[in-house]
TrEMBL record:
Descriptive protein name: Alpha/beta hydrolase
PROSITE patterns noted in UniProt: TAT
Keyword hit for Hydrolase: yes
Signal peptide per UniProt: 1-23
Keywords, comma-separated and alphabetical: Hydrolase, Signal
Domain of life: Bacteria
Gene3D superfamilies reported for this sequence: alpha/beta hydrolase
Domain BD-FAE-like stretches: 37-136
A GO molecular-function descriptor: hydrolase activity
Hydrolase found in the keyword field: yes
């Protein structure tokens, strides 16, 4: 299933509201292993969303959440945003393990796996996919992979004359590891549903489309949102602001369906 930029997705949990319509919620900070996460609790939570921030595997913060906490809280979902160790101190493989540790902590302390969705943007989308779709158990109710070419490093490189783009190259210097560290080529079976989102960034549509094809061939239900009219940061920062209603409908529709299973 592919959602175009103009497709209306029925069954949304919350209507998009203008920027500033959500009251900024307060968070609680907890440690999981060596790193921390923030929980923005919903008034009457019936599940949770775990968010993995981007930053090219070497920067970023769990505090960069925008309107997402209040938006997901309005759907009666706790919102969890986590930090993880970064390059150059911690390689991507170590980051994947740390993200999985945070996910397991949330499963044990916030919401059961079948009531939890995992979402990441950019590098965080790659880490979220690697930590949920490549054999780790238990599995969440659904995974939102928001705009990363690293879901398929091999295909991404083809869009850049055989090389990885600057924002990705430093994290994956060993070409022999591109397949192993690409979710597309490491998929397990019997996976939860996936919402795959891509922007106008060169190569992201190609990589995400091939990832979706391989995942579907593996029996996974994948919905693809064509965000090629939007910038990389836009498909993340706009969530909960009402600026891209079709994207918000895609996300809320996906969340609704995933939690009904």
């Amino acid at each position: 299933m592919t959602i175009s930029r103009r497709t209306f997705v029925a069954g949304s949990l919350a209507s998009a509201l203008p920027l500033g319509a959500w009251a900024a919620p307060k968070s609680r900070t907890h440690s999981y292993g060596a790193d921390k996460l923030d929980i923005y609790p919903a008034a009457e939570a019936r599940g949770a969303v775990i968010y993995v921030h981007g930053g090219a595997w070497r920067s970023g913060s769990r505090k960069a959440v925008g309107a997402k906490p209040a938006w997901f809280n309005s759907m009666n979902l706790d919102f969890i945003s986590l930090d993880y160790p970064l390059l150059p101190k911690t390689p991507v493989s170590g980051q994947i393990r740390a993200v999985r540790q945070a996910i397991d902590w949330a499963f044990e302390n916030v919401a059961a796996p079948e009531r939890t969705l995992v979402m990441g943007h950019s590098a965080g989308a790659h880490l979220a996919a690697m930590a949920t779709l490549t054999g780790w158990m238990p599995q969440p109710a659904g995974v939102i992979v928001n705009d990363t070419g690293a879901v398929d490093l091999v295909t991404l490189s083809r869009a850049h004359d055989g090389h990885l783009p600057t924002g990705t190259r430093h994290a994956f210097k060993d070409r022999s590891q591109w397949g192993t560290l690409s979710p597309a080529y490491s998929l397990a079976r019997n996976l939860p549903p996936v919402l795959a989102i891509y922007s106008k960034v060169r190569g992201h549509g190609m990589a995400m489309s091939n990832f979706a094809t391989l995942a579907r061939g593996n029996g996974t239900e994948v919905t693809v949102f064509d965000g090629s009219a939007y910038r990389h940061a836009e498909v993340n920062r706009s969530l909960g602001t009402g600026k891209i209603p079709d994207l918000e409908r895609a996300v809320t529709g996906f969340v609704t369906k995933a939690l009904q299973r």
